[in-house]
Write a structure and sequence with these properties.
The protein has helices at residues 2-29, 43-52, 59-71, 88-122, 127-141, 144-158, 174-177, 181-207, 210-217, 222-234, 236-250, 254-259, 265-274, 278-306. It is mostly helical.
Length: 314
């Protein structure tokens, strides 16, 4: 186990290094600079800005400074906002907001998706299976930029049950927490559909295996067979999907955050590209990549626990 963790950690650090290098190369090779779009800026002023941020140095000097800063936890100053505030002051508060919303949405996706898939597999080709399949198809086909406004139209302007937007000002006020309901549902629905379909497929694949028939022949109850054998082995496709899905949900959805005016990380993905803010682009990419790597490592560990045939030390 320790050897596996060491290998994966080393592999993750190497992957993160390659991602940072490629991102740095793409940003620096793109024509222009964060200041080239400023109207009325003289050539001398432009050169002064580039000298201040070290953009007048050779690329290898810029690369060395950037990597050295990342190793020290310094993401660098923003090139597009007043006073050149460190981009960490933008990224970390927004990441915490996206983390809170994403955790709620991911939990909701599993709490709805897995039971739907179990119900569909237990009642194959019957009305519960057709109902679960219809919900799954609906979740996949209805995009979140349509689902979000539709929920607002129904539950805010129609029924007047839920507030339409903004982030909760207090985590102890029930009315404020209601603001999370529609964003969480909007963010979770597409993943509910995929989780339900993967759960159904995994269960139907396992239930016909020889070891399930053997377990029943030994006299185990249906509950014991389901919990110890069917569920443990049939849920592995969902576990494989969980890592990237949770990373995407936790880093926020640009569309959902814009619809519900949520100050999450998705906003800075857009703003960094629009403003050509090199340091902010790098920060967003590194946060997202690190989360993907860590979650995939956790998924591998969970997968090995669910399926003993996976040998981590090999």
């Amino acid at each position: 186990m320790l050897a596996f963790l060491a290998r994966r950690l080393l592999s993750g650090l190497l992957t993160l290094f390659v991602i940072a290098t490629l991102c740095f190369a793409v940003i620096r090779l793109t024509p222009g600079s964060p200041f080239s779009t400023e109207r009325g800026m003289s050539e001398q002023t432009l050169k002064n800005f580039e000298r201040h941020f070290g953009l007048d140095k050779p690329w290898w000097v810029q690369y060395g400074r950037a990597m050295g800063g990342y190793l020290q936890g310094n993401l660098g100053p923003s090139m597009a906002y007043p006073d050149w505030v460190n981009v960490g002051d933008f990224v970390w508060p927004s990441f915490r907001t996206s983390l809170a919303l994403g955790s709620l949405a991911a939990t909701l996706a599993f709490l709805i998706g897995v039971p739907l898939g179990l119900l569909a597999s237990a009642r194959q080709n019957r009305w519960p299976d057709h109902l679960a399949s219809s919900i799954s198809i609906l979740g996949i086909c209805v995009p979140n930029f349509l689902l979000g406004p539709l929920l607002v139209l129904i539950f805010t302007f129609g029924l007047r049950w839920l507030p339409s937007a903004e982030w909760p000002r207090s985590w102890t006020d029930g009315k404020e927490l209601l603001k999370l309901v529609m964003p969480a549902i909007t963010l979770a629905m597409a993943h509910v559909a995929y989780i339900a379909r993967l759960t159904r497929a995994g269960m139907l694949d396992v239930v016909s295996r020889d070891f399930i028939r053997t377990a029943r022949a030994k006299g185990l109850s249906e509950g014991a067979v389901f919990l110890k054998h069917v569920l443990k082995n049939g849920i592995t496709p969902v576990v494989s999907y969980a890592g990237p899905m949770i990373a995407v949900v936790l880093t926020g959805s640009i569309v959902v955050e814009r619809i519900f005016f949520i100050p999450g990380l998705g906003k800075w993905f857009v703003e960094s590209a629009r403003n050509r803010d090199m340091n902010l682009i790098m920060a967003c990419v590194l946060v997202y990549s690190t989360l993907i790597i860590l979650l995939n490592m956790l998924v591998d560990l969970l997968y090995a626990w669910l399926d003993p045939r996976v040998r981590l030390d090999e």
